[in-house]
Amino acid sequence: MADLLYGSPAPGLVEVPAGAVQCSPLIPGATDLAKVADGSAEGATVLAPPGTLERDFVLAQALRALKPGGRLTAFAPKDKGGSRLKKALERFGAAVGEDARRHHRFCFVTKAKGLTGLNEAIAAGSPRIVPAMGLWSQPGVFSWDRPDPGSLRLIEALPPLSGRGADLGCGVGLLAQAVLRAPGVEALACADVDRRAVECAQHNLDDPRVSVAWADLRTPLPGVEALDFVVMNPPFHDGGAEDRALGQAFIGTAAAMLRPGGACWLVANRHLPYEAPLAAAFKAVTLRGEGGGYKVYEARK
């Protein structure tokens, strides 16, 4: 394997070798960095995530995968972990060169002998059962170590559902577990853009009624249509920045996947202006709950 790429750098920010293999879990179809063979890559370009456990896991996996003498370029915005990158790499025993431009910090490492702590960082960032949820999860997944309060608010408001449905942006399966308690649910198609969440959900949702897909939900799931219900706690951040269009796209996806008369149950942060896109996509929209900074809507197609 020649070169690895983790993440989607802004155009012109860094030179990415031609043919680099994408390894981000947030890009459906990408290679799993953890499955790249030891010492098999010539180079790695890593847009480092901001969370400490996730960042160190990714850096350690990239260093593990590099050949001796292979080059790692790791970078991040200064205010999203970039200022801590050099120290993180030095804790592995790496000699680090550093540069700064366009509000980012760049670190350069040539893999040498004597690296330490890689296995420990990989173990700390790997999937595990989280006691607070009793579910498999992994650092880097949305709300990875505690139940998301928005999802809990939606669970409180949901009536028993029935028929065929979907959980769009299912995460590790917290909301889907609640939906599946209703015996009238015949099938539940779960999907998320994060491969790590999908793999955890496959562990957590051990139910023959469930399918779990790794997909970008700005477009409908192929072959999943005429549903009776959709539940969702749509994301509104893309690459760390608030992106309200992302939630609006989820609303359009839900409407496209529902049958006439089908229901979309949605929870959103109170400040998000989803009323207009809901009204445009559905015949009837009803506020079913509000509190704790969240609002829950039932929208009928």
What would the average pLDDT be, to the nearest integer? Answer: 95
Measured by DSSP, the beta-strand proportion falls in 25-35%
| Structural class computed from helices and strand pairing | alpha/beta
Q: How many structural units, i.e. domains?
A: 2
Instruction: Quote the distance from N terminus to C terminus.
Output: 48 Å
Provide an overview of this structure.
With 301 residues, the chain is an alpha/beta fold. The protein folds into 2 domains: 3-124, Rossmann fold (3-Layer(aba) Sandwich); 128-300, Vaccinia Virus protein VP39 (Rossmann fold, 3-Layer(aba) Sandwich). It is 24% helix and 33% strand. It has helices spanning 52-65, 85-90, 118-124, 149-157, 174-179, 195-204, 244-257, 275-281, and strands at 3-6, 21-22, 41-47, 66-77, 96-101, 104-110, 128-130, 135-137, 163-168, 185-192, 210-214, 227-232, 237-238, 241-242, 258-269, 284-291, 294-300. The chain has a 7-stranded mixed sheet with strand order 11-10-9-12-15-17-16, sandwiched between helices. A 6-stranded mixed sheet has the order 2-1-3-4-6-5. The mean pLDDT is 95.
